[in-house]
Amino acid sequence: MTTISSAALSGGGSPFAVHWGLSREVAFLNHGSFGACPTAVLDEQRRLRDRLERQPVQFFARDLEGLLDEARAALAAFVHAAPDDLAFVPNATTGVNTVVRSLRYEPGDELLTTDHVYNACRNTMLWAEAQGAHVVQARVPFPLSSPDEVVTSVLSRVSARTRLALLDHVTSPTGLVYPIEQLVHELLARGVDTLVDGAHAPGMVPLDLDALGAAYYTGNCHKWLCAPKGAAFLHVRRDKQAGLRPSAISHGANSPRTDRSRFRLEFDWAGTDDPTPFLCVPAAIRFLGALLPGGWPELMERNRALVLQGRRVLLSALGGAAPAPESMIGMLAALPLPPAPQGEAASVTQLALVARGIEVPLWDFPASPQRIVRISAQLYNALPQYERLAAELKDLLKPAAAR
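Given the sequence above, the corresponding structure tokens read:
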């Protein structure tokens, strides 16, 4: 276990940090990986869990359906979608699996993605290869100068055999906001359905899922919406719902009810589990939306401005040019670092930063010895934390003899 050195400074966050239970000894610049839930939202989850345990049968058998309806309606208003086109799932990876594993493939069918795809989702697509499909990977350069490079790269790999495109809205390793509206519409014009991995998008960028028109869209609520862990959604266009099945087949498959769609009946009950992360989504939306006078629009702009400031601080300290235009940055920003010493993984430097009281991800990307650092910005962060990261990275990246 790595311990924080005695020389580590305080976390140095913003005044909003009081709303989170994050360690004050750590500069937490990795909201993007797992999110962080405010204490007020966790209090709401405890209240719901207490209610569940006081009378489990009442909660599951008689109350839960209505509670899910209320939570789904609040989420639908936030992402601009019809509530009945949404299903709660534990995470975006489950959403991707639900779609990819529901489809049936003919030999030669192609699944299209990019080389910035999240590894778990890449593995899901590789599973489909055993069913006869073939995964095609478009190379998106990094650094890049324009979102047009993404569009050109993706469309160049479309063929008559392309069955489905799995595309990030915001890439996980590199923090790029893809021009997803253009991509979805261009692919649809070519007869290709799109599954959008929007793991990072809800709460980071404005969403209008009805206007987007993607066949499938999955997003996490535990990241930038700050709901408890285990809250995500899958949005399925109405004409695609009949062929989609949840990962766990349960009572909804043969329910005699006719007052709800089969999609609703199957996805709302997959067996006994803790539904409180889903039910806390409205509380998370309300709580964060009330922290700034301008609500969610101001929060999104504040966090985006902060991560751009942090990126400029790192570029000034480490040298080099911005690897992507500001228009492609949300609340994540990644920067290439000097190549690692031979055989050294990026995680070595990451753990050295942890020992100095800074939590930030470093990855070998696209492959060792090339590596990147990715910063996040949430309300609890402040500029001095990025200045500290820049100073510590600059020191760690010196040749050993110069330290």
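The two ends are 25 Å apart (CA to CA). Try to locate this feature in the token string yourself.
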